[in-house]
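Annotated sample (chain length 119).
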Amino acid sequence: MTFRVETVFDLTHTCPAGHDSPDHTIVLNRSNWTCLTCQQSVHIKMADKVGNCYLVERVPAREIRAGDFIVYRERAGITANEVTCSNAYQGKGRLWYLAVAQFGHDKISPDQYVSRIPG
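Output written by the structure step:
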């Protein structure tokens, strides 16, 4: 189980501003998961082999808040659960603390991208 971005489950990338029509295709910036045309976060449809399917946006861990739902890898698939705590880690190092229902917690880089369900 991990919070890191798992692109193997990505099916489609859609620009919320409409930069994915046949005459204006989306150009994705994979370093920050935005549309190069309008700089907005793209919506990503993810799915695994057993039928779990989610629409997410990718944001740095420091932008995740308690109450958000995030998608993460679990065994050979993906799952989603609610974030119960998200804050700067008070121990050594420049880390971010994330706690997720039915997962537990982890400390990651505040700049690490996480798949969040928009809402």
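Annotation: The radius of gyration is 15 Å.
Annotation: Residues 7-116 form one domain.
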